[in-house]
Amino acid sequence: MHEYRTHHCSQLRPEDVGQTVRLSGWVYRKRDFGNLLFIDLRDHYGVTQIVVERESTAFALTESLRSESVICVDGRVTSRGKDATNPNLPTGEIEVRAISIELLSEAADLPLPVFGNAEYPEEIRLRNRFLDLRREKLHANIVLRSNVIASLRRRMIDQGFTEFQTPILTASSPEGARDFLVPSRIHPGKFYALPQAPQMFKQLLMVAGFDRYFQIAPCFRDEDARADRSPGEFYQLDFEMSFVTQEDVFEAIEPVLHGVFEEFSQGKAVTPPPFPRIAYKESMLKYGSDKPDLRNPIEISDVTEVFRGGGFGVFAKMIEDGAVVRAIPAPGAGIRARSFFDGTNQWAKDEGFGGLGYINFKGGEGGGGVAKNLGPERVAQLVQQMKLGPDDGVFFSCDKASNAAKLSGLARTRIGQELDLIEKDTFKFCWIVDFPMYEWDDIEQKVAFSHNPFSMPQGEMEALVNKDPLDILAYQYDIVCNGIELSSGAIRNHKPEIMYKAFEIAGYDRSLVDEKFRGMINAFKYGAPPHGGSAPGVDRIVMLLADEPNIREVILFPMNQKAEDLMMGAPSEVSPKQLRELGIKFIGDGPKS
User: Fold this and answer.
1) Which of 14, 116, 261, 474 could serve as 270's disulfide partner, Cβ 3.0–4.6 Å?
2) Number of neighbours of residue 572 by Cβ within 10 angstroms
């Protein structure tokens, strides 16, 4: 017999009754019935019920066992009988009558229980992540993550992609988020950077002629945590393709994402390919966001002209000063109490905006709120334009276009949730396309890249030379599912002269491009194919499939909100000797070298 086990704890079935077996695992739960002790024995695979009789030599040891101690059990498989069957367990028709039990490792008092799914403070969970990971739900999430990655890898290979690994130590980039820097011992005063993404390397693979690349790539960005973004590091399904258009990229990755979501969605509906394509400008108008949740049926409208020069003086004056008005319908909300409308207006103020105007209709009558100021003709115009029903409500956001879009997008989400309009049990995908190549940076007071600086502008050199930079669109795209951005991507700028011009518009001269992107710009001078790709986030894919609101719940060893690893004590101070080897000296607060 094997030293530790003949079967795992989810393996035994009625056909094994009568066998003598050996199981090893953790004491998940213990129940004392006087003459009988029951132990739920758990390992990675599942749970088996162990029965210990008072007459057994193992009874005394079992009485003293703490939860999460590791034991090895020899016993005989018996049937539970119909009345004692547990339909929730794969092993629920059998139990193992213990003959002997060996204590392999005794557990101390637990800082948090493993049995059950009670909420515990983040600090306790992260400091004791090895225990947290034993808990059923979190353990299942991590197994799901592994299975999703295996499925992604298999599907990419089936699509003709080849997996390659790109460097982890690379050069710092002046674009994007803040880099994690790694000092060089051999080159004092110089630093490597951990890659924010394998962007340049995957493009160089295309120049090198590999045609279709992918990897499950670790990425490192020194940025603050959010519910859907882990601080420090994350993983993405990074891929790139040669001789492709934007549509070719979509057609390659849509079956992969659709297939993975169908495989692990537990029966939820998944948008079939081709996914809807929505222009950035249209998305910002209709949904107030470039990450629209299409489960929400509410669509925003521009009603600036309805209010222009009208009787609602506050809006009319703001429109003269360049503001716009966005209308957010609230289907069926007109018959709600006034507190619903006043509460939504107060919510907008609490979010830092000026508030929301509103009209509430009841039985098709003229409406309350700002309707009396607007006048019956304009109200009728509004009803016709927005196709409002007799008992609908509608909210209004008035501000400069960017702020009006932001508030209306947030209000659309809140109203959809409050009115229970969000479609359940479905994953709704879409592509956001035609992003602007540039945007105005209010802080730096200059034109800046709005997305990926290596994207091909639509119209190429002619657009860069002849168009207002803020009117230039790029072959850039995002894929969105249920309001979560899974990835950004682009058809790349593979022509050196177009790249120099694109960076010049954003304030980078030719010498800086040659210095910061020397590997890529030099490679493009020796024949580069048209190419493009994307990089869906693995963590976010698993977060959606696991129906978890926080990305921490699908990562093995996440950091806290302050980017600290409480279990391992990182970041930590290092010794003066290590600092001297790197030629580093702290000035002011910090360890002394």
Assistant:
1) 261
2) 9
The rounded distance, in Å, linking the Cα atoms of 399 and 376 is 24
Query: What six digits make up the tokens of 209?
Result: 């002629």
Instruction: Round to whole Å and give the CA distance between 487 and 538.
Output: 10
Say what the alpha-carbon torsion angle 543, 546, 552, 558 is, to the nearest 10 degrees: -100
Cβ atoms < 10 Å from Cβ of 57: 11
Answer whether 68's CB lies under 8 Å from 110's CB.
yes
Q: What angle do CA 206, 152, 551 make, to 5 degrees?
A: 105
Cα dihedral across residues 193, 198, 203, 204: positive or negative: positive
CB–CB of 537/486 below 8 Å?
yes
Yes or no: say if 281 and 434 are a contact pair by the CB < 8 Å rule.
yes
C-alpha distance from residue 343 to each of 337, 347, 395, 478 (Å): 10, 6, 12, 34
Q: Are 448 and 441 in contact (CB under 8 A)?
A: yes
CA distance linking residue 278 with residue 432, whole number of Å = 5
Burial (CB count within 10 angstroms: exposed 0-12, middle 13-18, buried 19+), residue 499: buried
What tokens does 50 get? 């162990």
Q: How confident is the model at residue 593 (pLDDT cuts 50, 70, 90)?
A: very low
Alpha-carbon span 284 to 194, nearest angstrom = 33
SS3 95: strand
Give 410-443 pLDDT, tens digit per residue: 999 999 999 999 999 999 999 999 999 999 998 9
Dihedral (C-alpha) 376, 378, 382, 385: value to the nearest 10 degrees?
120
Helices 280-287 and 401-418: crossing angle in degrees, nearest 10, is: 50
Alpha helices (H) along 351-425? 371-374, 376-386, 401-418
- 539-578 pLDDT, tens digit per residue, is 999 999 999 999 999 999 999 999 999 999 999 999 999 9
Q: Are strands 191-193 and 181-183 parallel, antiparallel or unpaired?
A: antiparallel
What letters, b where the CB count within 10 A reaches 16 and e where it falls short, cover 366-376?
ebbbbbebbee
- Residue tagged 């639509």 (tokens): 458
Q: Is 227 left (phi over 0), alpha (psi -120 to 50) or beta?
A: alpha
What is the distance between the alpha carbons of residues 371 and 327, in angstroms, rounded to a whole number?
A: 13
DSSP label of 349: H
Residue 218, preceding peptide bond in cis (omega within 30° of 0): no
Which residues, 6+ apart, have CB-to-CB distance to 502 below 8 Å?
437, 453, 457, 464, 493
CB atoms within 10 A of CB 429: 21
Helix 136-158 vs helix 246-264: crossing angle, to nearest 10:
140
Q: For residue 266, which amino acid is it?
A: Q
What's 270's DSSP letter? E
Q: Are 8 and 90 in contact (CB under 8 A)?
A: no
What tokens does 175 get?
């674009």
Three-state DSSP class for residue 293: coil
Q: What is the pLDDT of residue 203?
A: 96
